[in-house]
Amino acid sequence: MRKLAATMAIIFFYSIHALYAQRIPTPKQHFGFNIGDDYQLATYTQTEAYFRKLAAASDRVRLVEIGKTEEGRTQLMLIVSSPKNIRDLEHYKTVSQQLAHAEGLTDEQAHALAAKGKAVVWIDGGLHATETVGTHQLIETAYQLISRKDPETLQILDNVIILLTHDNPDGQELVSSWYMRNPAPEKRSLENVPRLYEKYAGHDNNRDFFMLNLKETQNIGRQLFIEWLPQIMYNHHQAGPAGSVLAGPPYRDPFNYVFDPLIITSIDAVGAAMNNRLNVEGKPGYTQRSGSVFSTWYNGGLRTTTYFHNMIGLLTEIIGSPTPAAVPLIPQRLIPSSATPNPITPQPWHFRQSIDYSVSLNYAVLDYAVRYRDELLYNMYRMGLNSIQRGQKDYWTLSPKRIAAIEQLYKDAPRERRAPRADSAAGDPEDTNAIPVKYYDSVLKDPALRDPRGYIIPDQPDNATAIRFINALINTGIAVYQATDAFTVSGATYNKGSWIIKTDQAFRPHILDMFEPQDHPNDFQYPGGPPIPPYDAAGWTLAYQMGIKFHRILDPFDGPFRRIPYGEEQHPKKTFTASPSAEGFILDARANQSFTVANDLLKQGIRVQRVTDASTAPRGSFYVPNSPTAIAALTASVSSTGAEATPLSQAPAPASLSPIRPARIALWDTYGGSLPSGWIRWIAEQYHFPVEVIYPKDIDSVDLHAKYDLIIFVSGAIPPLPVPGATMPGRGRFGRQPKPEDIPEEYRSHLGRITADKSIPRLRKFLEEGGSIVTIGASTSLAYHLGLPVHDALTELVGGKERKLPGEKFYVPGSVLQVSVDSTQQAAWGMSSKADVYFEQSPVFNISPSTYTTGQIRPIAWFATDKPLRSGWAWGQAYLQNGIAAFVATVGKGKLYAFGPEITFRAQTHGAFKFLFNEMYTTLVIDDHGSTDTHIRQGN
Ligand SMILES: [Zn+2]
């Protein structure tokens, strides 16, 4: 009887599902083709319509609009689960949050919640829009999960809440339309997409996840770090290494030392399930660990930022294209190993195969989540609790520099070497690697080297930027406090309004990562051999990059602190006090938002001057004479930017004031779009600088001096100079371009390159006539093209010949370094005497002493010590000492500014933005009669 009832229930259950399944439109019915058919891609417009149809047709779906994209499209997330779970989503979301935050729960309560909760698994697609498998597997996976009635699918729906998230609607629309524009299928190609597939950042849309500059990352970050806190997140990319089908978890070393170890072992477990499933299904070609370049070191990727939040982040990089291709023959890939247990042999390859692999991989992850549902939920709690406990006691994170310190201490005490190792209680007493434990104690029990209990961000000259940093923490799910009154910690007194971040919270790894240096290991192919590049940056400490002033607190502390609710973004509270009796107002040059306000005022024709000495305000500050229009403009601009305008009862001496107007600024870009140029475009919009994008053809044709005061060249713009000894690293884009007849008319003007024979003489003329040029990173090679008396500082003499220092001697991949700054120079107004800059195998210069005396070239920033590393990896950093990081050179009536470091890197380096901002005005010179001439001294 009971059996019959159960059978009836099952029949009823299936028939209900069959009912719904009948109404689910297939991809073919909607798109006109099957997902994975050769030569067929869906646009976002079509995909959005399909997702809405699925949501309308099925009770397994909740459609969520997670926000608008940079181009104004609606970004969608499909939540898929059983109809019952869908009705209870809010409840399960709360359970997920409670376990992830691990606050105020006993172990029993955590187990009970885990037993009743549902696993939350994030699966996304389309972040990198030219990687077309990503969006298409998302569509196919959605269809299958919503329409299938097999027991495995039903189990998944009952136990898992699946967040199917579209990462980049704008990119899919652009790339699919580009591919499909050719009516002849065989001629369709993903090559030569004319612009970035994310409006500003292109591929860097996957480097924005601790910063959250872009609308898409803000939308995604909200769901990941504030709303859902999934236990597993799976981020789809392509392509797999040649000769494989895909690279997947687990990943190669190094992993980041702040992680909870459960992250690494859980990636192992889920990775094994993924690899296993493909092998069971007879799908070869999965490679892992040393089989690919992907590691878990970096924070800031969509996948990698989740590790710092105790989530199991998965990345696969799969092959596949709508245009049929082939798995090539790479002989070494055919030797089975623990990296590639099941190699794939050379063969033709179709898009649909990649879709099928992807669906299998998604099902493997979801099946894992079914089998280990309560464990996943509980382990996330456990990791959060571990973090809280580490933040509540004296704790020392293990990292290479700590271990090196232990070894150094031992080495410096040679008489101890033969001391009996009586304290070696376990293990082989003959092990010659063992050293007395007191060396451990003297480093890893040194109170000065403890991890902080928290950080205090006090009132500072650039409070609006500090709040931007605070919001980067809040929007990635960090609990932040604000002081409701003045308070004292470790003898220092802090104002009301100071910010406090304590490390006894679940996402402690992320906090440490944003404040502390990354200690990247010395990673070489073999001892004495070439370096192994990190997958992305080696060091990125956001507080350093942004120039935030903060205090590390090593002992327990408390005070009158108000806890800000999770995800509640903060806004500067300062309002402008009109002070009608004031002579005028000062906008402090140390604050980046002062530049925004100055720009707003200039746009309205209001007089703005810069203070050229330090007598009344920090040098370079903006002075605005009092007037009703100035007060109205300041009131509006200060409240929207968080800048601070201070009334002055006495105007600065006229001799110290220099009136400015907005420079006419050109920003180089290229066909297909340059990432660093796109980021500057974004920064210019944020800080209200008017910027016009130009292309190499413009440089070769228009009267530059008549149209522009300033031209900006980022890395990849100016070609390297083909002489020995010149430094030309960086992200050059000097490859082939399409033929004009193969691309639409509107993009043809974007084609072309800066050339030594045509463009460089025109840039020289522009400078000589009084223009300014800012070059950043590899484009500082312009100095060599112009024959300026500067040299590459990173060379050595071998057999009488100069050559670049090899990687075995000097290697600094993306890292944060400290430079000394001459802040009396206009280019560095508002900067401190020291600054942290982002250095990525960046150019460094020597200037001959005789040049100093002529004054033609003046250093702006330089490496003053043999240890400039602040965060990351700087092998052979002593070579940097005395090297010039940035200089200004006089060329005719104009100025060339050369900044070796990436001063606008991914719009994260707020602490270095002023190096660029200061050049973005034209200084007016006042003649004897008090009138101004705009053509005398431009762009200083
Ligand atoms: Zn990718």
Write the layout of secondary structure elements.
Layout: H1 2-23, H2 27-31, H3 44-57, E1 61-68, E2 74-80, H4 83-87, H5 89-101, H6 107-116, E3 119-125, H7 133-147, H8 151-159, E4 160-166, H9 169-180, H10 215-228, E5 232-237, E6 246-255, H11 261-280, E7 286-289, E8 295-296, H12 304-307, E9 312-318, E10 325-327, E11 347-349, H13 351-371, H14 373-390, H15 400-411, H16 438-444, E12 454-457, H17 463-474, E13 481-483, E14 487-489, E15 492-494, E16 499-502, H18 508-515, H19 542-545, E17 551-553, E18 561-563, E19 584-587, H20 592-603, E20 609-611, E21 622-625, H21 628-641, E22 645-648, E23 657-662, E24 665-668, H22 675-686, E25 691-694, H23 696-701, H24 704-707, E26 710-713, H25 745-748, H26 759-768, E27 772-776, H27 782-785, E28 790-792, E29 795-798, E30 801-804, E31 815-821, E32 834-839, E33 845-847, H28 849-854, E34 857-862, E35 869-871, E36 884-891, E37 894-899, H29 913-917, E38 921-923, E39 925-926, E40 932-933
Helix pairs in contact: 3-7, 5-14, 6-14, 7-13, 8-13, 11-13, 15-16, 20-21
The protein binds zinc ion.
Characterise the protein shown here:
32% of the residues lie in helices and 19% in strands. It is built from 29 helices and 40 strands. Helix 5 (89-101) runs parallel beside helix 14 (373-390) and helix 7 crosses helix 13. The model is unreliable at 6-13, 724-732 and 926-940 (pLDDT under 50). It binds zinc ion (ZN). Zinc ion binds at residues 128, 131, 237.
